[in-house]
Task: inverse folding
C-alpha cells in the first residue's frame, strides 16, 4: 500500500491569481531541488497563461516563508566529490531567482515570519513584497563560510548608506519596518490579514484591467504604517564604520565606536569566516555596478569556489551538523587574507 505525501510545493489558481505555497513547514520551508523545479515550472506556465494575471507566494505553517536552501545536502555532495551535483542546485536556484526578478506579471511575496537565504531570493526580487510585524529577514551565510547569494547582494548594495553592508557582513536580522527601509520590501501588513489581502488581490485581478493589477497594493485597512525602522535610526555609526572595502578596517572602526550597536556588530562579524567576509565585501561593492542578472552570474562563480573552500565545510559542520558553534576557520582574522586570496574566488572576474 503506497503512502501518499503532501507535495513540497502546492500550486493552484484562484480566479486569475496563481498561488504557490512552499510546503515543508517542519524545516521552515527550506528549498530543495524538487521545490525549486516545481516553482520554476509553475511560474513559467503562468507567465504565458492569459488567464493568470498575478502570482501570490507564501510559506506553509506559522513560522515563516522560507529559511533558505538545503545547505547540508550541498556540503554532503562536495564531501563525496560531487561538486557538479552541488553546483546544479545553485544553478537551478539562481535561475528561479532570475525568473522572479524578470517576471512579466505582478509577483506578490508574503514575507511573514522567517525569511532567510534562499527565501530572500524568491521574495526580495518580486514586484510587491509584503512583510508583517512578525518578519525576520536575514542573510546569515558568512557564519557557515558561504556568502549572501541568490542575488541578495544586488538588493543590499542598493540599501541606504551602509545598511546593506551591515546586514551582509554581520548576518543581522531585520524586522518588517527595517526591510522596507532597506528596500527589501514594499509594505507592512498585519500577519493576521493574509487571506483578506489575497482576496483583495483576487478581486482586482478579476477585473481584467492589467494596469489595475500592475498597480495593486494591499488595502490600507490592513497595512501597518506606524512602525519605525530601528536600523535606519542607527545610520550614523553604521555609515561611518562600514565605509570602504577592507573588512579589517571596518572591524577596527566598529571596535573604536562608542555606540553599543557597533560593539555587538563587531562581535558578530568576528565569529564569522574571515574568508567569507572578505569575499562578501568585494562582491557587494561590485554588485553596486551590476544588474540582477550579472549579480546572479557572479553568485554562480563564487558558489563554485566557496563551497570548495575549507571554511564552508567547517562552517556547515559547526552550525548545522555538530552544532557546537565553534568553527575553526582557515584564517583567524581578515587581515591575514591577501588580495589574491579574495580575487581567486571570482575566477576570471578577479584577474584584472
Result:
Amino acid at each position: 500500500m503506497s503512502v501518499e505525501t503532501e507535495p513540497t510545493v502546492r500550486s493552484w489558481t484562484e480566479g486569475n491569481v496563481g498561488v504557490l505555497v512552499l510546503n515543508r513547514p517542519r524545516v521552515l520551508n527550506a528549498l530543495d531541488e524538487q521545490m525549486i523545479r516545481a516553482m520554476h515550472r509553475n511560474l513559467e506556465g503562468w507567465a504565458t497563461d492569459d488567464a493568470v494575471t498575478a502570482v501570490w507566494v507564501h510559506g506553509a505553517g506559522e513560522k515563516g516563508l522560507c529559511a533558505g536552501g538545503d545547505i547540508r545536502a550541498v556540503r554532503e555532495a562536495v564531501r563525496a566529490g560531487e561538486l557538479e551535483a552541488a553546483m546544479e542546485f545553485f544553478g537551478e536556484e539562481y535561475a528561479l531567482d532570475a525568473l522572479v526578478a524578470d517576471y512579466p506579471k505582478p509577483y506578490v511575496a508574503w514575507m511573514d515570519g522567517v525569511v532567510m537565504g534562499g527565501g530572500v531570493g524568491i521574495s526580495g526580487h518580486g514586484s510587491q513584497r509584503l512583510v508583517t510585524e512578525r518578519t525576520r529577514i536575514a542573510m546569515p551565510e558568512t557564519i557557515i563560510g558561504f556568502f549572501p547569494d541568490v542575488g541578495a547582494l544586488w538588493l543590499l548594495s542598493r540599501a541606504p548608506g551602509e545598511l546593506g553592508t551591515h546586514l551582509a557582513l554581520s548576518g543581522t536580522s531585520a524586522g518588517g519596518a527595517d526591510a522596507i527601509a532597506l528596500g527589501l520590501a514594499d509594505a507592512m501588513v498585519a500577519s493576521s490579514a493574509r487571506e483578506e489581502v489575497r482576496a483583495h488581490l483576487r478581486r482586482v485581478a478579476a477585473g481584467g484591467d492589467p494596469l489595475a493589477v500592475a498597480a495593486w497594493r494591499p488595502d490600507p485597512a490592513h497595512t501597518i504604517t506606524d512602525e519605525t525602522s530601528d536600523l535606519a535610526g542607527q545610520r550614523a555609526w553604521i555609515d561611518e564604520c562600514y565605509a570602504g572595502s577592507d573588512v579589517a578596517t571596518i572591524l577596527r572602526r566598529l571596535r573604536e565606536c562608542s555606540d553599543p550597536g557597533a560593539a555587538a556588530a563587531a562581535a558578530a562579524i568576528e565569529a564569522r569566516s574571515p574568508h567569507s567576509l572578505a569575499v562578501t565585501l568585494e562582491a557587494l561593492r561590485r554588485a553596486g555596478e551590476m544588474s540582477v542578472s550579472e549579480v546572479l552570474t557572479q553568485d554562480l562563480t563564487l558558489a563554485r569556489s566557496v563551497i570548495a573552500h575549507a571554511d564552508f565545510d567547517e562552517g556547515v559542520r559547526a552550525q548545522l551538523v555538530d552544532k557546537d558553534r565553534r568553527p575553526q576557520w582557515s584564517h583567524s582574522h581578515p587581515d591575514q587574507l591577501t588580495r589574491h586570496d579574495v580575487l581567486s574566488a571570482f575566477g576570471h572576474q578577479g584577474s584584472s
Remarks:
- The chain has one domain: 9-350.
- The radius of gyration is 20 Å.
